[in-house]
Amino acid sequence: MRRDVAIRRFRVQRFTPHLFAPNYSGRGCGVNAVSLLTGVHPYKIDEQSDYTPEWILPKLRRHGVSALKVESSDAATFGIFSQSIHGNHVILASQRVKVDEASWFVIFDNRVYHNFEVSRSDVLDFINFPIIHGPYLLWHKSWGRFE
């Protein structure tokens, strides 16, 4: 399948994040991202000291969440000044938040989900907090396909 077709197939009709109480935020960003995306209670997900893509992606796949890594060449897939990634894509990315620390974020429709807190996305987020792992486009059958 061509990359542009694959990227289009990851657009969703709706995104239903599972928001647990913010007091679970201490479980770790990787645990909370998996919980937010799958609905599994944060205490039922094993904690790690380092949440790598090799840890998080298999957990998501086990719950039916597909992931497609966005490559830098995908940005030009649709032509000059034509966006390939839209607000109706669910995006998972690990971004640097300190010199020696990164954290997992879920982005959808200009909203950022981090440790069960929701805020508006800002284009400067990706400059101030550069992406370390990903970004990944996510899709689950319960979210539907945007056609």
Task: Note down, in words, how this protein is organized.
It is a single chain. The chain has 147 residues and is an alpha+beta fold. The protein has one domain: Cathepsin B, Chain A (Alpha-Beta Complex), CATH 3.90.70. The protein is 21% helix and 26% strand. The chain is built from 4 helices and 6 strands; from the N terminus they run H-H-H-E-E-E-E-E-H-E. It has a 6-stranded antiparallel beta sheet with strand order 1-6-2-3-4-5, with helices on both faces. A hairpin with a 2-residue loop joins strand 4 and strand 5. The chain is globular, with a radius of gyration of 15 Å. The protein starts with a helix and ends in an 8-residue tail after the last strand. The mean pLDDT is 88.
Main traits of this protein?
single chain; 147 residues; alpha+beta; Cathepsin B, Chain A; 4 helices; 6 strands; 21% helix
What share of residues are in beta strands? 25-35%
Note the gap between the termini: 17 Å
CATH architecture: Alpha-Beta Complex
- What class, by secondary structure content? alpha+beta
Task: List the total number of helices.
Answer: 4
Write a brief caption for the model.
With 147 residues, this protein is α+β, with helices and mostly antiparallel strands.
